[in-house]
Amino acid sequence: MIRSFILALVCCTAAAYAADDRNAQVPEIPFDSVPNFLKLPPNLYLGEASGVAVNSKHHVFVFSRGNTTGPAYGATAAQILEFGPDGKYIREIGHNLYAWSFAHAIRFDKDDDLWAVDKGSDMVIEFDPEGRVKMVFGRKKEASDEGDEPWKRLAPGQPPRPAINGQFRQPTDVTWDPNGDIFISDGYVNSRVAKFDKNGDWVKQWGTFGSDPGQFNTPHSIASDAEGNIYVADRGNRRIQVFDSDGMLLREITINVPMPPVVHMWMGNPPPAAPPAATVGAPAANGTMQNGSPWAICITPGPGTQYLYSADAYPGRIYKLALDGKVLGVFGSMGHQLKQFGWVHEMACPAENEIYTAEILNWRVQKLILHPEK
Question: Whole-model pTM?
C-alpha cells in the first residue's frame, strides 16, 4: 500500500511538472467586453458580485453581496438577481431567504434548477425554474443560541476538526455528474468535497487540509466534465485537482504562464514569486494570491470538445485550458476598466467563446466575447 502511495505521488509530481513545461508560452486571446450589459432598474445596485450563472434560456443570474442589512461587521449580504439575454432586469429570486447571509456561488444543473451556496449560513439551496425552494442542504446556526459565532479557522499546527456528514463549514461551490449526483466543495474550514446522490442523500466525502495529492487548502470552486470527472480549484495550493466521481485522484493541473511585464496592483504590495510547480509534500503555504492560483473555474458544455477556464486574482487573468491541463490561451489583466478584472470570484462559460465573470472588487459582471481567430 505504501509503495502504491509513493507511486501516486511520483505520478502526480510528474504530471504537475509536465503541465508546467507545456504552459511556458501561450498566446493572448483577443476579446471584447460588452459595455453596460446588465441594465439595473433605479435604486437597485450590485454589491460584490460573488456568483454568476446562465441557464438554458440564456438568462443571466447574479449572486451579489448586495441588499446589505445589519451591522457594519457581520451584516447579511446576499441577493440573487435575474436578467434576460439582453441584460434587462427581470426579477429577484429568494428575497430575504432564511439561508441568506454571505453570498458565495450559484450554478445551474441540467434541469435548469438554480443552486446557491451561501458561505455565511453554511447552506446550499436548490431552486426550481419558478424560483421556489426545492431542496435544502446544511443548516445555519440558530439566532437564539447563546454565543453563536462564525466557524473559526485553525491556527497553524492545530489538528483539523472532523467534518460532519451533511453539515458544512463555509462551503464554496457545487457541481453534478451525469447521474445527477451532487458534489459540494466545503470549503474554507472543512477542506473537503462532499458527495450526495441525486435525491439529496449523503454518500461520502474526501479530502483533508494539506498540500499532498487529494488534500486541499481552500477548495474554492468546483466543476465537472461530460465524463463525470470532478475538477476542484484548490486555491491555496495553487492547483486544480481532478478526481473521478468516487474521489479517486486522476491528475493535477498547475498553471505557470509567465507573469506579464507590468501588473497594476489594486492594493498592497505584489506577493512573493510562486514556485515553478506544485511540490508534492511541501508545506500548505497559502498560494491564494499567486500567479495562476485558481479562484474560479468553469467547463464549457458538450457535446463536442470541452474547455476549462480558470481565473486568478493576481495578476488578474483568465486562462483557457484543454481538459488535460494544457493552457491554450490567456487574456485580461487586473484593473478597473472593461476587459480588466478585480478578483474574478465565479465564471459561467455557456460556450467556448462566451464567458461571464463575477467580480468582487469591481462590483460587476462582465460579458466577454472571445475572438481566438484574430
Answer: 0.91
